[in-house]
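hey so u asked for the seq, here:
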Amino acid sequence: MNESLRQKQKRLSRERNNKTTIQLNRGNKMRLEKIKLSEGFDTVDEALDEVLSFYEDEKRNESLS
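ran it, structure tokens below
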């Protein structure tokens, strides 16, 4: 099947901006939105990055103990 022009534009935009698509269930998206608002992040992407960094730091600290 031929890729539509809009799909090509979206794909190129994601590649150019180093982004991918991700599907989250509504509950997890709402949780990220709450973190974004409470911590003052500009985007959900920033909130997710912070959560992942926190998790990685915790795991690293556990392995040092």
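The chain has three helices and no strands. The chain has a mean pLDDT of 90.
lmk if thats what u needed
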